[in-house]
Amino acid sequence: MKFKMAYFQAETKFRLKKVKTDITSALNTLDFFKIFIPLMIGIVILLFMVLFLAGLILSILGKLEGRLPGVAWTFAKAQLTGQNSVRLFGTLMAYLGAMIIRGLLKSRIQKFADSVRVKKSIIYVFGTSIYAETFIKEMIKLGFSDRVALVAERGLIWVEEVSTQCDTLIEENLEEFEKTNLYNIIGFENATKILVLTEDPTMNQNIITFTRERNKTVEIVVLARFAPSFIRTLQAYVEGIQIIDDIGAITQDLVQSLSLEITFAPTFWVPTPKSYIGEMGKAITADILGVEVLKISHEGQLLDPDAQISSGDKLLLYVHDEKTLRILSRIITQE
Question: Could you tell me which CATH number the domain at 119-257 has?
């Protein structure tokens, strides 16, 4: 009896020890999974980020030449044939990243296109050269910021500054200028002029070719120094393309060549008629129909029309029509 009791106690202790061991092992396994699972999740996320970055680089560098869907599918089939699932996964993730970036790129260009399309007429300026900068800033200063749109190939400081005043697209991936995507999205249907002012003749040639395909009648202006060779050679036979000599006052040449809808008021400085000496300037406005006195120049100062006219003063007049101008001329010359 004592033997059975001793045996029973020994077996009970053994079983309790085994249960304790099993519980300890289970807890250790659970701790392992607590560390292992988050670690694997982190590795997967890191791998996805690396592959996404690869897609970003592929997209920016333009290695797939604008045919990402077809190329990516070819890559995928090649990996399937080789039974290499890791390389296939990498290719698909790179493709996904490239597609997202290209979608963002298209959205940026589309946003620019939507902004310029609502305007009746636009002067499109390509480039970040000193000539493009001078022209854009001059147009803004003249109050024509809503008439110009800049397509820049570099995000320079001055480009960032004017982007708050006129429609601006910064496209630093130069390969986009060699493909049709950018030009198709913008359209250029409302272009009254296209100024090609980059310092790269090859880029200028691409811009001229693709914009001409989308607008057959718009006049294209290019600087002589950076004009493509075929333009310089065939200038006499190429219609609608104007080459501007960039020697001298380039801004003045550009503004004049644009034939902007600027109407100069018919104003004239004339000597004071003797019969009006001692009178106020507005007396002439009251007496001569179609003539308005704007200012009186007296001893280097500009006076308002209600000032008294003195001998030797000059009058700044606004003349409404040619007939009134002839009448005014007779009055002045007769005196």
Answer: 3.40.50.720
